[in-house]
Amino acid sequence: MVKLQKLNPLKDKTLEEIGFTWHTDKDGSKYVNDELVVISQDEAESYYSAANEIYDMYVEAAEYVIENDLFFELGIPFNLVDMIKKSWENDVHWHIYSRFDLAGGIDGKPIKLIEFNADTPTALFETALLQWALLKQNNMDENKQFNNVYEAIQENFKRLITLFDDTSTFNEHYDGWKILFSSIEGNDEEEATTRLLQQIATDAGFNTAYEFLQNVKFDESGIYDADGVEYEYWFKLYPWEDIAHDEPELATTLNTIMQNQKAIILNPAYTLLFQSKGMLKILYDLFPNSPYLLKTSDKPLEGVKYVEKTVFGREGANTKIVDENGNVLAHTDGEYDNYKKIYQEYVDFPKDENAQKYQAGVFFAYEACGLSFRKGGEILDNMSKFVGHIIE
């Protein structure tokens, strides 16, 4: 049974004052849970170790995919392949942040990888800021968390300049380079997340600006804001696969910009390899004995309960749970059904006394740096709730 601790929630007005406007779901229920998951220090350290080891496996698997030209197997759009290769070859294309979704880790259950949100992960605002505020609001020690997300991402921005471990030389090497941050106008959550990342980069020492994606200007010579100011770095909270399918001309222009070394795009194009759930099969093929991996195939599994997923998709859409006899036990609709499918062995999530299930999310920025949870039913969709944690 998941151990929970009740707490006084933050008021809507307080949340809105700090830019968190998506606090209430469409059915009127609160998105942020008024309980914390209680974990031990050993459990926190296990999440940390698992995420670090899994990331290393992803790096090895990505190299394998590129060397063996397995882009089609992962559902990678053909017009992004050159950018993926280019960004992978050069360390200046730095992976800023990502989030692992994991089953287990609490209630005595082993940690298992569910998927990797490597390109445009959500729940950053909640994990980095809100769960810290929840502890402070309830007069709890805000240090009793596995949560240094803000500081870790700040250090990772510095690595755009210094690369690798040592960031102490950032000021010596930084030469005024600018980062433009962009998201789609009209999405409060994505804008708040992007502006938070902008603030973190500003705190790291960069010159930064924000521009809605539709106002950013692109040509073969670079990337510009609406006033024509050129930027050396562009961070977009917009999925690479959506650029490939919905904005093919932009994909072509970005490829030229990258090949001509006119700007660096964040998160890098190679994160689409990590983002593809097709990588779960590659991982299992390469590391079948890893304790963190579930059996995964590009064909329905025989004799076991499994989950069918699309290689690209979000918020649990277009997901099926299928029993050992091929009967569909649960499913969700969505807009991603045209993508390739993968089939992952089913694993149950830890539950509370009301049979609600908990999925751990571990943020990664050079190393594992923060934990939070999502709570919901059999398939965690866009109505699942955010749950913070405390280390007892």
From TrEMBL:
UniProt keywords, alphabetically: ATP-binding, Ligase, Magnesium, Metal-binding, Nucleotide-binding
Superkingdom of this protein's organism: Bacteria
One term of GO molecular function: ATP binding
Domain Glutathionylspermidine synthase pre-ATP-grasp-like: from-to ranges: 12-391
Keyword Ligase set for record: yes
InterPro entries per UniProt: GSPS_pre-ATP-grasp-like_dom (IPR005494), PreATP-grasp_dom_sf (IPR016185)
Name of the protein in question: Glutathionylspermidine synthase family protein
Annotated organism of origin: Sulfurimonas lithotrophica
Lineage, opening ranks: Bacteria, Pseudomonadati, Campylobacterota, Epsilonproteobacteria, Campylobacterales
